[in-house]
Amino acid sequence: MLKEKAGENAGLIWNALNGTDGLTTKQIKKATKLIDKELYLGLGWLLREDKISTAEVEGDILVKLQ
What we know:
By secondary structure, the protein is α+β, with helices and mostly antiparallel strands. It has 3 helices and 3 strands.
């Protein structure tokens, strides 16, 4: 069940990032309506699959598609 939810969250995040030069976690949360634990579950999935890269920018995390 949790694995399925992680995949769904990852899809929402990927769709939000597609066509952008990257978004912060705050921007992703706003675009996807995910709560913190759902966001980080999806980000973990995408990181594990090497679909995204991350960097810390001004106290937030910037996420970009690979």
